[in-house]
Please model this.
Amino acid sequence: EGSAAGSGGGSVQAGDSLRLSCAASGRSVVMGWFRQGPGTEREFVGAFRRNGDRTYYAASVKGRFTISRDNAKNTLYLEMNSLKPEDTAVYYCAVGQRLDSGIYYDSVLSYDYWGQGTQVTVSS
Model:
């Protein structure tokens, strides 16, 4: 069993920053962030793999976004800096519990529980 609940979205100007939070319950092999813009498929943003405390990022956000985790609170954070209009999307956090979740961390199929999504809107 497990769950994920994301929060922290909002509307900002290009160049601003936002921090998203994902409170999770249950065991996790990997925790990830995905986003989905209007008319697009859900795409990988980044992930935190517990084995080795490794972080992974999509090329489009690398250098601007940072993932961190508070183990005591079982909470994952996504710090988003230098936001661009193309970052506008609904952001979802997710928890993967299977052993191979940590290998295929960029696939939606690797995750078992999803948060409800939080809207991020970046204006130019």
In short: The chain is about 0% helix and 50% strand. The chain has a mean pLDDT of 94. The radius of gyration is 13 Å. Residues 14 and 84 are 5 Å apart (CA to CA).
